[in-house]
C-alpha cells in the first residue's frame, strides 16, 4: 500500500525533471523496479493511473516498468549470482559474505516528453 | 523544433537514472547528521503489529538505567505507545501517520523538532506495525532491528525478504510461548541467516525478561562514547 507514496515521489521527480527540460507534456515514464524492492508493480501502475492525471504535466503520461531480478556478489570469491528463494549464500564457495548489487532498486530511468 | 538538429520532431527522451525515493533519502541523510551531531545512536524497530516492539523497549529500558534514552513512536492512530514509554520516565514523541502504513524520513525529521536530544545517547524509532512497507523507507537510523514473535510462525523471514535483508539485528520475541507452539527455532534462525548472513540473532521474551540482559549488553556496546569530561 506504500505504492501510493512511491508514486507521489515518482511524479514529483518526473515533474521536476520535465520542467527543467521545458516539457509541455510528459508522454511516458520508464522506471526500474527491483523484484525485492517491496513494491508491487500492479499496485504502482494503479496508483499511477489515478495520480498522474491529477497533474498538468503528466495528465496523459503512461508508465513503463522494467522488473529487475536480484543479483548478489560474493565478497569472498568475487562471483556474481542470482539468489533463488532468497538464499544469499554463494553457490560457488558457500560464503555468506554476500551483498545485493541489484534487485532492490526503485529508480526513474527515463522520461519521454513533448517539448 | 528539437534543439539538436532543428527537425520537426517534438518529442525528446531524457535519461534520469535517479532513485524515486531520493527526497526521502535526502531527509534520511539529514536525520543521520542531526543524530551524529548530538552523539546519539539510533535504532529503528520494525515488525508486524503486536510482535512486541513497545514491550521490548520497556523491557530493555530496565537494563539500560543511566543511559539517556528517547523514543519516537510511529502509529497509524493513537498516542498509546508514547504514553506507555513516558510512564517509564523516558521522553517519547508520538508520530501518527493518519492512515499511512509506514514512517518516512520527513516525518521523523518533524519529530526532532519536538524531542530535544540533549542528554540522549540512544534513540529508538518504532515504526508502524508492518513488515512490508516500512522496509523501503530509510529513516536515517544507524541500525534497523527486525522483530518476529513466536506466534507469527517460523516461516516468516523468506516471506518478508527486504525487512530481513536490510536489518542488522533479528530479535525473536515471546520465547516464553515456544513450549506451547510448533515453532522451529533453528529453522527461523537459519532461514533468516541465509537471507542475511550478517544478522545478529537474539531470542528474548519481553514478558519474562529472558534474553533481555544479553540484548541490553549488545545495545550498550553500540553507543557512542561520551565526550570526555572537561572537553
What does this entry look like structurally?
- The complex is a heterodimer of chains A (115) and B (231).
- With 115 residues, chain A is an alpha+beta fold.
- Chain A has helices at residues 3-20, 41-51; strands spanning 25-34, 62-68, 71-74, 80-81, 98-102, 106-114.
- In chain A, strands 2-1-6 form a 3-stranded mixed sheet, covered by helices on one side. In chain A, strands 4-3-5 form a 3-stranded antiparallel sheet, with no helix packed on it.
- Chain A is elongated, with a radius of gyration of 18 Å.
- With 231 residues, chain B is an alpha/beta fold.
- Chain B has one domain: Rossmann fold, CATH 3.40.50.300.
- Helices cover 29% and strands 21% of the residues of chain B.
- Chain B has a 7-stranded parallel sheet with strand order 4-3-5-2-6-7-8, with helices on both faces.
- Chain B is globular, with a radius of gyration of 20 Å.
- Chain B starts with 10 loop residues before the first strand and ends in a 9-residue tail after the last helix.
- The relative contact order of chain B is 0.17.
- Strand 6 of chain A pairs antiparallel with strand 1 (11-19) of chain B.
Amino acid at each position: 500500500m506504500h505504492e501510493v507514496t512511491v508514486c507521489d515521489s515518482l511524479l514529483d521527480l518526473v515533474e521536476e525533471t520535465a520542467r527543467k527540460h521545458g516539457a509541455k507534456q510528459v508522454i511516458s515514464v520508464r522506471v526500474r523496479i527491483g523484484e525485492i524492492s517491496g513494491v508491487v508493480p500492479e499496485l504502482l501502475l494503479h496508483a499511477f493511473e489515478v495520480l498522474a492525471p491529477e497533474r498538468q504535466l503528466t495528465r496523459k503520461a503512461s508508465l513503463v516498468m522494467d522488473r529487475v531480478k536480484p543479483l548478489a556478489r560474493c565478497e569472498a570469491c568475487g562471483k556474481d549470482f542470482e539468489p533463488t528463494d532468497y538464499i544469499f549464500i554463494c553457490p560457488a564457495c558457500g560464503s555468506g559474505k554476500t551483498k545485493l548489487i541489484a534487485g532492490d532498486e526503485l529508480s526513474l530511468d527515463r522520461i519521454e516528453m513533448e517539448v | 523544433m528539437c534543439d539538436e538538429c532543428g527537425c520537426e520532431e517534438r518529442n525528446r527522451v531524457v535519461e534520469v537514472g535517479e532513485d524515486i525515493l531520493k527526497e526521502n533519502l535526502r531527509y534520511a541523510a539529514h536525520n543521520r547528521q542531526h543524530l551524529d551531531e548530538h552523539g546519539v545512536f539510533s535504532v529503528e524497530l520494525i515488525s508486524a503489529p503486536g510482535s512486541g516492539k513497545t514491550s521490548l523497549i520497556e523491557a530493555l529500558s530496565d537494563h539500560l538505567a543511566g543511559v539517556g534514552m528517547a523514543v519516537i513512536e510511529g502509529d497509524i492512530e493513537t498516542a498509546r505507545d508514547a504514553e506507555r514509554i513516558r510512564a517509564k520516565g523516558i521522553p517519547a514523541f508520538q508520530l501518527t501517520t493518519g492512515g499511512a502504513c509506514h514512517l518516512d524520513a520527513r516525518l521523523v525529521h518533524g519529530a526532532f523538532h519536538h524531542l530535544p536530544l540533549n542528554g540522549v545517547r540512544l534513540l529508538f524509532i518504532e515504526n508502524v506495525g508492518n513488515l512490508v512497507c516500512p522496509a523501503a523507507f530509510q529513516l536515517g537510523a544507524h541500525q534497523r532491528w527486525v522483530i518476529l514473535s513466536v506466534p507469527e510462525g517460523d516461516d516468516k523471514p523468506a516471506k518478508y525478504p527486504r525487512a530481513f535483508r536490510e536489518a542488522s539485528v533479528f530479535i525473536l520475541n515471546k520465547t516464553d510461548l515456544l513450549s506451547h507452539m510448533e515453532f522451529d527455532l533453528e529453522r527461523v534462525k537459519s532461514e533468516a541467516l541465509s537471507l542475511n548472513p550478517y544478522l545478529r540473532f537474539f531470542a528474548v521474551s519481553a514478558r519474562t525478561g529472558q534474553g533481555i540482559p544479553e540484548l541490553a549488553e549488545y545495545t550498550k556496546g553500540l553507543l557512542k562514547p561520551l565526550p570526555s569530561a572537561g572537553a
